[in-house]
# Entry
Amino acid sequence: MYLELKKRVITSLILILILILMFINNIIYGFVSFALFALIFVEFSRMISIIFSKKKIFQLIINVIFIFYLSLFLSIFFLGINFFQLKIILFLILLICVASDIGGIIIGKIFKGPKLTKISPNKTISGSLGSFIFSILISVFLLNLTLNTEIIFNVTLGITVSLAVQLGDLFFSFLKRKSSLKNTGNILPGHGGVLDRVDGILLGIPCGLIFTLILSS
# Structure
């Protein structure tokens, strides 16, 4: 148990360092973004091949749709290389996504209580509320500090992003259950695969960005 926790902590610190380097260096930003999305697709495709092992056409259709989605996602990230304000917004939303995950883990483990859904037995109602609370607090703090936006906007963004993160997490948890996989991979010691870490973020960032663009236009 201690060894597993140690792995998770070390891996988390390395990931934080990589994020910092991505923010300050565009070459690292572009390279890491492309590498992450490639790994995400490999792990996703593996799950789909297991779920639809006898239906190759379904595998093809779903993989094509997911590639299209990832391509749009990656295009937005690459725009951040030339538009610094967009990069700031992307990283702010990313931090709100991370806060949602952390809030769910901390509050869920402290208060436990009724399960949220059968799709993911480890998730509780208290954990879901913790995700919303942490996202709102981080959203209010970071946006007030950097963009000086209205409090109602900050709170609503936190709620929107957390909801999207939790729905994305549940969706990929459902796929993992259908494919009988505990983790999508093992590239991140103590965490599993890349997709295990960014499952909710894949929906949280686009929803947060769309929300921000609509209200700021």
In short: DSSP finds eight helices and no strands in the chain. The CA atoms of residues 132 and 162 lie 6 Å apart.
